[in-house]
Amino acid sequence: xxxxxxxxxxLTAGVVSGLFGVGxxxxxxxxxxxxxxxxxxxxxxxxxxxxxxxxxLLGALQYYKRGEVNLPYAAIIAVGLFLGxxxxxxxxxLVSARLLFS
Length: 102
Hints:
This protein starts with a helix and ends with a helix. The radius of gyration is 14 Å and the shape is elongated. The chain is mainly α. It is built from six helices and no strands.
C-alpha cells in the first residue's frame, strides 16, 4: 500500500507545483512521514533526491551517505512530479487569468 501512497504524494505535489509554481517538498515530506511511515530525516533525504537533484545534489548525497534516502520512493515521486506538473500546467492554461488573480 505504501507504493500507492508514495505515487499519490508525487502526483499531488506535481499538480500543486504545476498549478501554483511551488516546490513539492511542502507536500512530499509530510506525506512520506504521515502516509508512508518514513522518518523525518529519510523523508527529507528522499524528497531532496526526488525533487532537486540538479540543485540539491550535494545535500541529497549527504543524506544518501548516511542511509537516509529511499531511492525507489524518490524515483516514484519524481515520476509523479513529472506527470503531475504537466497535468497542473495544462489545467492552469485552461483557467482564465482573470479568475486566477481575482
